[in-house]
Amino acid sequence: TALLHMDRYVMDPAKDPLFKGEYNVVKQAVAALKDGVAAKNECDKVIDKNGTPKTGGTGIKQLRENIAESKLSYEIMDDAAQAFLKTKIMDNIHKYYYLIVFTAYMREAADLAREACAEDQKADLTLSGGRCSIPANQLKISKKFVQFMDENAALRELIETGKGDLQWERDIPAASLANLENLANSDFKGNLGKIIHDIYQTGHVMFGDMPQGDHKKRAKYRFASKTIMRILPADLKPEMEAKIAEKVITLDLYEILGQCIKVQK
Description:
mainly alpha; about 260 residues
């Protein structure tokens, strides 16, 4: 019975929202589609059957988990790798989105096909409850997917503008940011030791969920590099941005600090 009611499929509620496919653009599509929740459930069951054998899948590809794992890897990558990974993540969200929309289309098409009983066949195909029971090999889809999308044109715009609607960087706590900006603006050179200490202390808290190791070190270092650029005082920031744009230096904590010290000598 469970196999016949795929739209009632329920994922493990303890899963992270990323692994459950709960992206903003998907949630908006589910809300806009007729029986959108059922369409997503049905699509998710098929996706899970393509997952790893250890969870009962066939081992082909688990699209949602692929998106989630790529997103979790994003923050530890360098700029070039991040650019590639961001494109891959958005491309896979695009695929996932359209799989759900196509499932909604097929559910609607199946309902219409089952009801499209010719007058001369009704006597032979009508059940006692009054519904037609057309043999599966005689069912016909009356509307192409492109027509369905034309009727729901807003769904096309939604995915194009929303597939990148993810939190790509962790938010620095407002109080920590205000403290760092105050230290930088009051006496950047004199407070430099304190600034670096506080940046790393903030990063230690922000990335506390990551296991110890090289990935965590890289994530904290990237955070420190981006944060130092963010809090540079007005007399230093434009010059450092120009040097990075001209590839004199990279977005690297110690390269930035080295240039700042040169300028302030």
